[in-house]
Specification:
Helix content is 9%, strand content 35%. It has a seven-stranded mixed sheet. A four-stranded antiparallel sheet has the order 11-13-16-15, with no helix packed on it. Strands 12-18-17-14 form a four-stranded mixed sheet.
């Protein structure tokens, strides 16, 4: 009886070996049963010749976690001959020789080969995949030599999900919002997946019932570059008086009522893991705000010269958090911008600026871009609730308001 031994080692060495005894006929018989080998690293087929000397053909998987994993066929005695002919090979010829597939489990419903590039290097036939391997998927490597195809299956194990992404902040941070509230900013601790926002975010009334279509659902969600901050807009049609949705349906949130903004933990981050927990923001609704912010009503607390004390600016109402972070600037006595860091706190009613270098004695100014908004979207120089059919200017101009303050000598 010919001797046959099959072993699949633990993934510690990432190697699977199939030993075939005394005859190639037995090896071919074994392949005809389409045996399944499951491993992650190196797939090796060893054939014992009639002389007892082993001839090893190995398929090695390298750079498994990289963007372009590499498969190598080594130990093939015809590699030199193929090397001289490979310059004339087209993709079909390469794939007929060696190909890697996502394994559907059925040869009848086989998926096309993975895309990538081929080359001969250091006595090895190399296939470099164009895309990374996906954890949890099974793959099939097929190497066709002069005899029978060598068919080996393997699986990239799915890494254990690390559930750590949370909702870090929701702005406005106050729990009292105007009836014509314009937007929320949702800040996450890690990049999030796209396309799920409007199914994972809910607005509930005080009875726990969902509010129908409170938000403007855009085809392209409003994410920052990192994918960590989402801008969520209330439907403007239910904010501006005189529009059909406002007159027939009413505002999304109503003065005197209580609500909860709910974010599902089933929302997945960019790595495919769900949020660590649900998030809820409870708030009550006050009267609509239909007045523009007035910088003349702001209180500036000037620092002393020679110090790194922050300039503190206090507002009579909460303003838009994200715009506060970029639309206010400090000008020195020579008219140059002052470098420093910004902090917004007290539910967005205080803005603080700390300079990189100590203040110098003299006349400074706070430059305020007039596109700065309050919670209802009212700008410094314009109400949000304007005639929506008015003519749009061809050129968008930026204007600023300057608020002077003086840095005095240290007392």
């Amino acid at each position: 009886m010919p001797r046959f031994i099959s072993t699949v080692t633990s993934i510690g060495s990432h190697e699977a070996r199939v030993l075939w005894g005394t005859s190639l006929r037995v090896a071919r018989l074994f392949l005809s049963f389409k045996s399944v080998l499951v491993c992650v690293g190196i797939l090796t087929l060893t054939i014992l010749s009639t002389s007892g000397l082993p001839s090893t053909i190995a398929i090695r998987l390298e750079n498994q976690q990289g963007a372009h994993p590499i498969f190598k066929v080594v130990g093939w005695d015809q590699i030199g001959q193929i090397s001289t002919q490979s310059a004339r090979f087209g993709m079909d010829q390469w794939q007929a020789l060696f190909a890697v597939y996502v394994d559907s489990g059925s040869f009848e419903d086989a998926l096309p080969p993975m895309l990538g590039s081929y080359r001969i290097e250091d006595e090895a036939l190399i296939f470099q995949a164009r895309f990374p391997l996906q954890p949890g998927l099974r793959y099939r490597a097929v190497f066709t030599s002069a005899s029978e195809p060598i068919i080996l299956r393997f699986e990239i194990p799915k890494s254990e999900a690390i559930v750590s992404t949370t909702v870090e902040h929701v702005y406005p941070s106050t729990d009292r919002l105007p009836e014509n509230q314009l937007k929320f900013y949702l800040h996450f601790s890690a990049p999030m997946s796209r396309g799920e926002a409007y199914t994972r975010i809910h607005l509930l009334d005080e009875r726990g019932e969902p509010v129908d279509f409170p938000f403007l659902e855009l085809d392209e969600e409003l994410w920052d570059r990192e994918g960590k901050r989402l801008t969520l807009l209330f439907d403007p049609g239910r904010i501006k008086r005189g529009l059909v949705p406002y007159e027939e349906v009413g505002p999304s949130i109503t003065e005197g009522e209580n609500y909860a903004l709910v974010i599902d933990r089933d929302w997945r981050d960019a790595q495919g893991n769900s949020l660590k927990q649900d998030f809820k923001k409870f708030f009550s609704v006050i009267a609509a705000d239909r007045e523009t912010p007035d910088p003349k009503s702001w209180l500036l607390n000037a620092p002393q010269a020679g110090s790194l004390q922050p300039l503190s600016v206090e507002f009579p109402e909460p303003l838009d958090h994200e715009l506060l972070m970029r639309l206010l600037e400090i000008m020195d006595p020579q008219g140059n911008f002052v470098e420093g860091s910004i902090q917004v706190d007290r539910h967005e009613t205080r803005w603080q600026f700390t300079p990189q270098e100590p203040w110098r004695e003299g006349d400074y100014s706070l430059s305020v871009d007039t596109t700065l908004e309050d919670l209802a979207g009212n700008r410094v120089n314009r109400l949000f609730e304007v005639d929506v059919f008015e003519r749009i200017e061809e050129r968008i101009t930026t204007t600023t308001v300057s608020l002077p303050f003086q840095v005095l000598p240290r007392q």
